[in-house]
Amino acid sequence: MRLFETLEDIKEKLQNLSKRSTTGGATEGEANMSDVCDLADHLRDVLVEYQFSQQKAIFEQNCRLIDAVDLSVLNGCTRAKGAEFRHGTRSSCLKGTRTAVLDDIELWSRDYKASPVYWLNGVAGTGKSTIAQTIAERVFADGRLGASFFCSRDFQDRRNLLYIFPTLAFQLAQKYPKFRSILVPLLRSNPDIAHELPLSQMESLIVGPLSSSAISTVIIIDALDECVDEDPQSAILSVMGRLVEDIPNVKFFITGRPEPRIQSGFRLGLLRPLTDVFVLHEVDPSVVNMDIRLFLEHGLQELAERHGVEQDGWPTEENIDLLCKRAAGLFVYAVATVKFLDHSFMAPSDQLDIIMKSPGSTAHEGQANLQLGATLDSLYISALQAAFSRAPAGDDEKVRSVIGAVVLAVDPLSPSAIADLVNMGKHQVMKILQLIRSLLKLTENLDSPVLPFHKSFPDFIINSLRCSNERFYISPSTGHLNLALSCLELMNHSLGQNLLSLPDYSLNSEVKDLEERISKHISLSLRYACKSWHSHLIEVKEDIPAIIPALENFLQVGFLAWLEVLSVIGGARGAVLALEKLIPWLQEVTDDYHLLHTARDYFQFATTFLELISISAAHIYHSALELSPLSSLVQKFYYHKRPCPSPRVVIGTPESWKPTTAGSTKSFNYLSSAWSPCGQFIAIVAERAVEIWDALTLKLLSTMQSPTVATRFKRGVTYSPDGRSLAGCSHDAIIIWDTQTGGMAKEVKFRDPHNGLDIMWSLDGRTIGRISRGSYNVAAGHTYNFTLYNVISGATLSSEKLQSEVTPQFWACNKYFQVTTITRDQKSHTLEIFEAGITVTRIKSFPLKSHSPVGYSSFGPFSLTTHRLSVLISQSHNHDPELLIMDITTSEVLLQAKGSYHDICYSPDGNLLAATTKAYLSIWRYTPGRYVQWKEIPQQPIKLQFSPTLSSIFGYAGALLCSLHLDYPPTSSTAKSLITTHSRPLDAFSPHDTFIVTTYHNKSTLAVTSLKSPNPFPSQFIDTDLEISEIVLTGNVLLVKSSETIVGWLLTEDGEVDGILGNSRADQNDSLWKVSPQDLNPAFLARLEGRENHLEFAVKDDIAAIKYSGVILHAYHTRTGEIIKRDNLPSMRPWYHFKNPLNRDDCNIYHRKQKETPECSWPVSQNSLQEGWIKDPEGRHRLWLHPYWRAVGNEVDWLDKVTTLRLRNSSELVVIKF
């Protein structure tokens, strides 16, 4: 109705103008033309408003018609909320301003013969987002806007570039049914595609559906510079340069500051010819000043009318002129000025007087005409002075805490959330926010987020050079300390077990009213605290003791409840990232080893059970807690919180964290791998693909683009030193990818296809070296080629031949590489080291000595940081193979170990060495002058790689990709509580229970822990240099047995070493029990007299269990010697049972009847291994099966509510009682 009234009004005015033009002169005609132009602009605005409302109704109707199943699939796609132009409080351009640039963009958007990309380039404050909002409204009104994404550094999801294309795809699917019909099946078949790299995302989510549906549309991306992007050229722009020509009917309008990576992106060879550029800060200053003047005049006029200010002489021309001069071409200054004058209880004229009287510059100003600090600092200071002067006396600290919460928040906080965090009333917080309303985006809604009105305000107030007044300055360190402490205290107060009252055994997806429960029980402030406490904590560098108690309380009381909240709000991965950041922070700021050990243990828990935590909050207690190792601190602090009834794993729970923290059962021909320099990703080479995996979860993230379908990859993959590029070796070329986009950057063909063995990037990132196999000569051995390539041009810089009996090993060194070969004559082998660059020069040679003729030799890797080289020497058939570690600078042999070792690798610092045998993964640690064995893990991974942080080793074991977690550097203590609660095998008590002696780490070190001391850590360590098989403590004598030696120590009553008794030879079948005095529980020891080959034992309270020869279990009362149970146990470990008190009934668990009719009330499906769950008849998920069990599980049986799972290729047995 309003449209027709407006049209009638315009018609009447045009008729009047027509009459005037027939009677008036030239001057009158010019005035009429001006009036006609104004009417035309008014008509366009009215039509746009009408079209906008119609398009909005159409869009909402389309959304309502989307099939429920399709909508569920779309909603499951990761996207940024609030990024669309219709969300938020963004303003559009004032009528009559920015007309030239708006008309230019509109003409471009309608001309599909013009460039497909338009870049609105402008420095901060020039009004880019306002123009983008205006264009979005106009194009939406025309029905041509497909999608929009307004980036913002204030929101985590809207500053994440991986959210851009999935969010745009979601909006396109809402608008266009054809697009939706293509996208939904794609998301069903590959639901993780939204988590892939930008190149895969744009290809699959945008280009594929748009090209297939032939849709013409406009897509808007605003403030691209606010996305976190590590690429030297913007990752989004790099991807668009490759793909935008594939969708010629689509126009991309992009705004962004001229930052180096944005400029470099638009200068890329593929994108530059496809882009129109409009530079806002190069527009004629007179035109910009005219628009700013118009904006100020209009804004101040509205203020005067709203506040009842007499407009005669206010504002004066001098006022407007000075404001325009201070704006210096920046619209943001004009907007800030109008906001400052629009105060609820101060007259605009008084506010304007404050600005007029303030100095025209600050110490920071005047550096450049278009720097924000040069125009806004004085305005910010004026606003803050006015705000603080109106605050009650003595409230400066409260004002700063509220402002600090706004400018330092990881995600925007609402007034109510700020109130909870700073421990103030909501209305008191709102009152403080009102004082600085001109500097904020603030509504009257207490639950709406508060934002700085412009990004320049936080930059100003946390910079002591710009904000020199200590009364206003927000110290980032102090501010983050306060927020971290507030988050921890809020969680400690508000979190509780099963906060949402979820049904037992439920998955999150099965709780229909989950969102309502979340809204009811998890406040905005608690949600923020759970997601962001660690982000504030790691910024704290001082006053650490103030926050440690709250952190300890959170870890010991609220940890699992915190995981519950993250589980239901979809933030489970955030727990892993939080703990990953917490550990190095603790190492840096405190020497509290117990706290550090707790953080490491919890990190293991979160990593191991991330998949489970993501889908079920209830099973954090039912499954994850039950499957945690007996020695874990999670068990110590939380095992008593398990709901009853819950399944109990009575056999099969490890006594410590299993080395395999995550695994994938994806089967492929695994050739080689490489860690990214940051340690977050692993590149894996398969025959037909190079894949990027998440190093924490071993989840496939993306597959790098192959040049052709026929491409076959060979061994060899290497990251560039900065991690921005990845190179892989195919059968005929070196292929280089951009790691952030996943796009192929270069393909370097070589002349000797199919013979490539390995490639490596140089340390300066300019060249790539390649080793390939050449010819073979019986007399001289193999010929190998070393080739050096220029990364930028792809040119071959050099190619040299090398003779070697084995495949040469090479590594980056200085500008180029060093290469090792082994040559031989009739009697010996010689190790030679060459410097390989433009030329190849021999720099060292070593004879390889052995006690018998060498049959064959091969290389392990070289440690660049320590110059240590590993050589595998295979002797004649009468001698064992040998692993030799040499320091090539001194020719010193650091390790000489016999055994069939293979797949050797060094840690980045060279201080750890790992090698695999047929049964174990052995890890050695360097001590001055030699390597000593540190760990021996019953896993056999191959193609080993240490992570850059030394926290884990990645490898391939059978059907599993596995990440083996390392506690390195090792903590110097082990918590006594772990021992006294029998959460690990106990080796020996002192006679009067004054101390305990336990094996430590690799079972060559003994830890002595006093039971009287309040200190929970071992009082001393005894390095035995033995591989301990048995330990006995009787009286004050400590006896330790290895396979060949018995060593004795004399200890004091407090466990201090008082002397060594010497050592003697021991036969392999000897038992220490035979030579032990009868001081400890004589009746118990009498039972053991004469027993041979007892392998393991465990003690709890008055019960002891002993396993003989791997097959016989005896359980005794230690005080009376009475036998409780005697049974055959195929390779069962008795101490698993000591998590709970042992009793006679529980001993029946060990007895497994064969081929009997099941008496269980419900059978366990053999499909459990594939499904990953054991379910009851009602379909409830009773217990989650670890991925390791699923991968190697072979047989599932049940008996009387007991389920057993036998693991393939292993004697391990898992027994679960329901």
Automatic annotation (TrEMBL):
Lineage: Eukaryota, Fungi, Dikarya, Basidiomycota, Agaricomycotina
PROSITE patterns in the record: NACHT (PS50837)
Name listed for the protein in its UniProt record: NACHT domain-containing protein
UniProt cross-references to Pfam families, sorted A to Z: NPHP3_N
Coiled-coil features, chain-numbered ranges: none
Superkingdom as given in the UniProt entry: Eukaryota
UniProt-listed InterPro entries: NACHT_NTPase, NPHP3-like_N, P-loop_NTPase, WD40/YVTN_repeat-like_dom_sf
Keyword Repeat: yes
Assigned keywords, A-Z: Repeat
NACHT domain ranges (all copies): 116-258
Organism, scientific name: Thelephora terrestris
